[in-house]
């Protein structure tokens, strides 16, 4: 049992001005966290209680899935990161520094290198595999825009796990086990989530799923099929190949140049020429690690840079700056087109739907009309390069896709041999031959998960925690602590519940009832017991459900039992 008078939970009415999302505001107002620097926080007792509960579920489910807990250092020597090639590739998110002897180190943003080094030293034979090692550890990523409190911090706790198998078959099985463990974890936390196909990004590898908590404030857009189980991050979601030549005239004459003074955007050109956006061939020039590339897409769609990057096999791509556009196309931006353009060109499948259309003339204030793909220009390849849209057909079953917003709380990757090859982590197979081990990696952000839970579960009065990760299960509010009967009833109930393992916050403060009620609602403790003077004198207490607001009057001798029942019901909602 914890007594509020002896507990540091400094709630405040003030809405912090720099907090843009609900979870950040409520964690600050509830006295859960305190900012020390941008993206760097102190966890106050109640905040830490929540994180520890998240961690407990993580540990139980990782252990159940056969993973073993280790703890690796936060400080990592550069040599390991140079071996994997990420010392140069990772960029500015990696916080680097030197020790007194001028040796280079980084603060680990993720631990593939360290764990692969561990395994290459300790594993000799396939008989020692499979192996899955996990830790819950402090990570540092020097994010460009730390924001939303614990959602995108610079220093944060992550549960990261790494699996090692003798072959790809085994790696697939390890991945499946983690996928299942993740589903159990988020179900136990009482969260509405989707597992969606994702891009493999900075970490690399062959396949990956992101675990998204559905919330309108989410930074990620995800698509899911209304009728089958397909779900994907919009970055990754596959787009269909449309029927050819359905837009524009099929017997267009020769391409003609028309004047389009100061008309640059799709809307401007479409309006000015009276041609639908879907009949415009949008041409964007990218600077990439493999040279300049023009990318074409129908004016009705947007290019997906991640698909472009993956298609080109490039380390990076970015929209070309004005000087490059002028140098390559001979015109200011807004007038680029594929006809006669002397640069590598790839096109999204949507361009195939255009029988004839309009595009930039590579000349200031001019466009070409009656341009026919295949006749007037031929891209090096057609590929899926655009962003998916709400209503697009599902790539699996053809039903309509819906777009919703989500918060990425977990990520599972199949890594193949990306790291084990570079770091030479091998084992001997049954025939005594050396095999490079197959890996997977699996992350869950502890603080982000807690923040996501608030984003999904709150109301106008504050947080509404699922009981499995609430800071306390029950709060007891003696309305007037100076009334001896009230105080005694509160103490008895608190002690009784405490003895049965229920986590109780006893609000023994000499505050006005309204303030105590507001605080209890703000920090979102699932079950509230109110002991008012009149009720206690009549032999009653009040039991209130934080989520529904439903209140029942219960005789004092039956109060403990009623609380236990409500706690049990709420726990039943948080099972895997
Ligand atoms: P994002 O795209 O949001 O930056 P990521 O792809 O970089 O995430 P991973 O490298 O897969 O994330 O990290 C695993 C998990 O760690 C994420 O699913 C998330 O829950 C958490 N995480 C990542 N970055 C942060 C951060 N800056 N603050 C808090 N948690 C984070
Ligand atoms: Mg990131």
Topology:
Blueprint: E1 2-3, H1 22-29, E2 33-37, E3 40-43, H2 45-64, E4 68-69, E5 75-77, H3 78-84, H4 86-89, E6 96-98, E7 104-107, H5 112-122, E8 131-140, E9 155-165, H6 168-188, E10 193-197, E11 207-214, E12 220-225, E13 231-233, E14 256-259, H7 266-273, E15 281-288, E16 291-298, H8 305-312, E17 317-319, H9 322-329, E18 345-348, E19 357-360, E20 366-371, E21 381-383, E22 401-416, H10 418-422, E23 426-428, E24 434-436, E25 438-445, H11 446-456, E26 458-459, E27 462-463, E28 474-478, H12 484-499, E29 504-506, H13 513-523, E30 527-531, H14 533-537, E31 540-545, E32 551-555, H15 556-572
Helix pairs in contact: 1-11, 2-6, 2-11, 12-15
The structure holds adenosine-5'-triphosphate (ATP) and magnesium ion.
Residues 110, 141, 143, 152-153, 156, 158, 201, 408-411, 443-445, 447-448 line the site of adenosine-5'-triphosphate.
Description:
- The protein is an alpha+beta fold.
- The chain is built from 15 helices and 32 strands.
- Helix 1 packs across helix 11 (446-456), helix 2 (45-64) crosses helix 6 (168-188) and helix 12 (484-499) crosses helix 15 (556-572).
- The longest helix is centred in the first third of the chain and has 21 residues, at 168-188.
- The radius of gyration is 29 Å and the shape is globular.
- The two termini are 27 Å apart.
- The model has no long low-confidence stretch (mean pLDDT 95).
- The protein binds adenosine-5'-triphosphate (ATP) and magnesium ion.
- The site of adenosine-5'-triphosphate (ATP) has 17 residues, from strand 9, strand 22, strand 25 and helix 11.
